[in-house]
């Protein structure tokens, strides 16, 4: 692979992003789900739920960008962007 791609040998794997995300978010012992999101989940900018640490939330969401990079994940992100476009006012 080194001949085909520009890369560096960093040695044995000591870091895996998926595990690190779970550790940072306090979700290591969570019950696993088969699907990434509830099918009937309704999110609203007028939620009455308490606010969370915005920096921590952005950090977790940002980390997910590096964990999944498939066409169906991109489609889900685009759907979220279309939702943002609809609700920006």
From TrEMBL:
This is Uncharacterized protein.
């Amino acid at each position: 692979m080194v001949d085909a791609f520009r890369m560096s040998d960093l040695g044995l794997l000591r870091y895996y992003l998926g595990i690190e995300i779970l550790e940072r978010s306090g979700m290591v012992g969570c019950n696993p789900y088969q699907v990434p999101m509830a099918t009937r989940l309704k999110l609203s900018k007028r939620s009455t739920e308490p606010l969370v640490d915005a920096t921590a939330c952005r950090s977790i969401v940002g980390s997910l960008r590096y964990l999944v990079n498939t066409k169906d994940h991109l489609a889900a992100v685009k759907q979220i962007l279309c939702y943002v476009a609809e609700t920006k006012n």
